[in-house]
């Protein structure tokens, strides 16, 4: 997963809910220096909470993604993140930065 262009990650999930697995796995895939290069915000919901899990990402170009981690699997989320990151990578290569 390309994380170079992500500036902020915000996630909200109930760690006791099996459908929160996608959010937990996404957080585990972030590099060890993620808190130095991006803002990471995690909100853990209480066990009795019925609120849905979600994941919000902000990229260097200002685009925001709001992903429903209960409906999407980790592969789909990684595809979306990588798709936009590859676009930003191409733009960076073309501008010569």
User: Which value, in Å, is the CA radius of gyration?
Assistant: 14 Å
How do the strands line up in the largest sheet? 2-1-3-4
The portion of residues forming beta strands comes to 15-25%
Major sheet characteristics: 4 strands, mixed
The H/E string reads EHHEEEH
- The amount of helix comes to 25-40%
Kindly report how far apart the N and C termini lie: 21 Å
Q: Report low-confidence residues grouped into runs of 5 or more.
A: none
Distinct helical segment count: 3
Shape: elongated
- Which assembly state applies to the chains in this document? single chain
Roughly what is the average pLDDT, rounded to an integer?
92
- Based on secondary structure, the structural category is alpha+beta
In total, how many beta strands? Answer: 4
Describe the structure.
- With 97 residues, the protein is of the alpha+beta class.
- Helix content is 36%, strand content 25%.
- It has 3 helices and 4 strands.
- It has helices at 21-29, 34-37, 74-95, and strands at 6-13, 39-44, 54-59, 64-67.
- A 4-stranded mixed sheet has the order 2-1-3-4.
- It is elongated and about 50 Å long.
- The chain starts with 5 loop residues before the first strand and ends with a helix.
- 18% of the residues are buried.
């Amino acid at each position: 997963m390309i994380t170079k262009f992500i500036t902020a990650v915000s996630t909200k999930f109930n760690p006791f809910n099996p459908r929160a697995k996608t959010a937990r796995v996404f957080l585990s895939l972030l590099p060890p220096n993620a808190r130095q290069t991006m803002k990471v915000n995690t909100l853990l919901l209480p066990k009795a909470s019925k609120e849905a899990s979600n994941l919000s990402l902000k990229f260097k170009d200002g685009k925001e993604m709001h992903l429903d981690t209960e409906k999407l699997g980790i592969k789909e989320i990684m595809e979306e993140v990588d798709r936009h990151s590859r676009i930003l990578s191409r733009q960076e290569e073309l501008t010569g930065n």
